[in-house]
Structure formats: C-alpha cells, structure tokens
Amino acid sequence: MTDVFDRASDLEQHQRDLAIAAARTQPAGASRLGCADCGESIPEQRRIKVAGCTRCIDCQQRFEALRRQFGARGPT
Prior knowledge:
- By secondary structure, the chain is an all-alpha fold.
- It has 3 helices and no strands.
- It has helices spanning about 1-25, 45-50, 55-70.
- The radius of gyration is 21 Å and the shape is elongated.
C-alpha cells in the first residue's frame, strides 16, 4: 500500500515540476508598443529585452524613483 502512495506522490511532484518549468519559459506578457504613462513609442530593443514592459525608459525610471521615495505602497 505504501508503494501506491509513494508513486502518487512522485507523480504529483513530477507534474508540479513540469508546471513550474512551463511557467518559467513563458514570457511575462506582451510588451506595449506605446508607453502607458506618456504615450510615446517604446523602442523595439526595450520590448525585446524586457518582456511585458509597459513604460518607456524615462517613465520607468520616474516610476521606480517614486516607489523608492514613497515605499512599496507608491505615491498617494
């Protein structure tokens, strides 16, 4: 009886490992063509290098500076 539980546990672990591996190979999401903040176009190199980016470099830097200034909760 223990063998059945061991095999079930091994199968579950294998399926979990496969799901994690599949999730890691998928991109974070489609990058936007235009910045969500200013509307300017996002350079192709940035869209390729940073999968799922939604801001141009300048707006992303401002966003990160505000997060550092106000903490993780962001500006109010």
